[in-house]
Design goal:
The structure holds 2 protein chains of 2 kinds. By secondary structure, chain A is α/β, with parallel strands linked by helices. Chain A has a single domain, classed as Amidase signature (AS) domain (Amidase signature (AS) enzymes, Alpha-Beta Complex). Chain A has an 11-stranded mixed beta sheet with strand order 1-3-2-4-6-5-12-13-9-7-8, sandwiched between helices. Chain A has a two-stranded antiparallel ribbon with strand order 10-11. In chain A, strand 7, helix 8 and strand 8 form a beta-alpha-beta unit. The two termini of chain A are 18 Å apart. By secondary structure, chain B is an all-alpha fold. Chain B has 2 helices and no strands. The chains are: A alpha/beta, B mainly alpha. Chains A and B meet through helix 9, helix 10 and helix 11 of A and helix 1 and helix 2 of B.
């Protein structure tokens, strides 16, 4: 095994490329070999962009040979959920229908920014159709499988992102999160994920789902890699009208500041019921490690979840109405039938749900006057089996597809930043995640806490042994 | 005052033609299930006591 074939984090790859210990081409070739070896069994990648990746690697190696400065992610292979535009490919967004679109003329802004920092795109990743999914299953491309047990779900809708990271194919991936689609696969696949504040990172040249809630963010196996990727992607972008006019807040420099002085509490009420014991034990373990004995409530979180659910149905349906009329047979039926129902919701419900969103935001802002970080489960259970339609939670039979996100949906409903951290239990082969949540724009705090937990060994993202 | 009632079949029959959608036999039960779920969530959401002056958040800045 050469140095470059080891499954290194992006930060270490960049250090090796800068020092000359290994070339960017070696790292890209190693990633392509891992994808070739593992993808057919796991279903993470839908497109592999080997030619452009090798050309980019050669450009980095050439720049180094000339003594030019290299970026903080120099030579690190990454991949993007296939709703990100990749120049030359149709942006399928997990669908059959979008494959008829013309190829994208340019990369998504976030792909461009990671490549500007030296990272190298090696392909597009599987996802649930049109991102309306928490399972990682796809009717057209097959499921992205959980690398820790291939009979289980990866989680969705950024399922390929979770699979690619947990299996060690690449150290870094991009995904989207409307109601939990970064946090659910992070939880089920046992990796780190960052959903930034709504409006923080540009969504330009990505395929939308619910404009009110769509976020983009990175996945990695280390908090340092999440921070490096996040820092590289910050900045204004006139191509995303929802991008907030706030100053960029790079986080890498403050990552090791620890949790001293931070007021941390677990969320009670809604976030402490309707889940399996493993979900709440994971939160308790993280809280103990952080010395967080307090419990606080987010008022009417159940209503927040209900409101987010309705807005999602309606906005998603409005986006796809023409396709539902003309291409209904080409949808995944599970997605199509939810969207058809969403098209039939009364407008007054949706307006009131948006009013409730404002109310809830103000209430949660009050909570954050007394606390800096709150903790909650990321999913109500470990990864269900592929194909599993229902699950039992607190004695109720519930649909798996919509309810894996019951703890994530109230948080993204008001755009709060969240780092999801993976917790492992002795004797269990599957992990479960915890949400580290802060007030808007405090990505620095959620990543500081995540890093402190990682440094203590409370959370970690080992590469899956089962491949 | 008329109490709100919810009949998923009636909604589908009334709105599918308006929307230009065909709800086939294979889809009907699933669409009804999703409408029933939405109605339950709407009932919960409708109970929220909000001021007339609460501003909706269609464009949201946290």
């Amino acid at each position: 095994m050469t140095f470059a074939s080891e499954d290194l984090p992006a930060a270490e790859i960049a250090a090796a490329v800068k020092s000359g210990e290994a070339s960017a081409r070696e790292f890209v070739n190693a990633a392509l070999a891992r994808i070739e070896a593992r993808n057919s069994a796991l279903g993470a990648f839908t497109d592999v962009t080997a030619t452009r990746a090798l050309a980019k690697a050669d450009a980095i190696d050439s720049a180094r040979a000339k003594g030019e400065a290299l970026g903080p992610l120099a030579g690190a292979p990454f991949a993007a959920k296939n709703l990100f535009d990749i120049a030359g490919l149709p942006t399928r967004a997990g669908s059959k229908i979008n494959r008829d679109l013309p190829p994208a003329g340019a990369d998504a802004t976030l792909v461009q920014r990671l490549e500007a920092a030296g990272a190298i795109l090696v392909g597009g990743l599987n996802m649930g159709e049109y991102a309306y999914d928490f399972t990682g299953e796809n009717a057209h491309d097959g499921p992205s499988r959980n690398p820790h047990d291939v009979n289980h779900m990866s989680g969705g809708s950024s399922g390929g992102s979770g699979t690619a990271i947990a299996s060690g194919m690449v150290p870094l991936a991009l995904g989207s999160d409307t109601n939990g689609s970064i946090r659910v696969p992070s939880s089920l696949c046992g990796i780190f994920g960052l959903k930034p504040t709504y409006g923080r990172l540009s969504r330009a040249r990505t395929f939308p789902f619910v404009a009110s809630f769509d976020h983009l963010g990175p996945f990695a196996r280390s908090v340092r890699d999440l921070a490096l990727a996040y820092d590289a992607m910050l900045g204004p972008d006139a191509d995303d009208p929802a991008l907030a006019d706030v100053a960029p807040n790079p986080v890498s420099a403050s990552l090791e500041q620890g949790v001293g002085g931070l007021r941390i509490a677990a969320l009670g009420g809604y976030f402490a019921r309707t889940g399996e014991p493993a979900a709440f034990e994971a939160v308790a373990r993280v809280a103990r490690a952080l010395g967080a004995a307090r419990v606080v409530d987010l008022p009417q979180a159940e209503r927040a979840r209900a409101s987010g659910y309705l807005i999602t149905m309606a906005e998603g349906a409005a986006l796809h109405l023409d396709r539902l009329r003309t291409r209904a047979a080409d949808f995944d039926p599970d997605v199509r039938d939810r969207l058809i129902a969403g098209a039939m919701l009364p407008a007054a419900w949706i307006v009131k749900a948006q009013k409730f969103r404002s109310w809830f935001r103000h209430q949660v802002a009050e909570v954050f006057k007394g606390v800096d970080i709150v903790l909650a489960p990321a999913t109500p259970c470990r990864a269900p089996l592929l194909g599993q339609r229902t699950m039992m939670l607190d004695g109720q039979e519930m649909l798996v597809r919509p309810n894996l996100g019951l703890f994530t949906q109230p948080i993204s409903f008001i755009g709060l930043p969240v780092a999801t951290v993976p917790v492992w239990t002795d004797g269990e082969k599957l992990p479960i995640g915890v949400q580290i949540i802060a007030a808007p724009w405090r990505e620095d705090l959620v990543l500081r806490v995540a890093r402190a937990l990682e440094a203590q060994g409370i959370v970690s993202a080992p590469i899956a042994k089962a491949r | 005052m008329t109490e709100p009632t919810f009949n998923a079949d009636a909604i589908i029959d009334a709105l599918a033609p308006l929307l230009g959608l065909v709800v086939g036999a294979a889809s009907r039960d699933a669409v009804k299930t999703h409408l029933d779920i939405a109605a339950r969530y709407a009932a919960l959401m409708e109970e929220a006591d909000l001021s007339d002056h609460e501003e909706p958040a269609p464009v949201f800045t946290p």
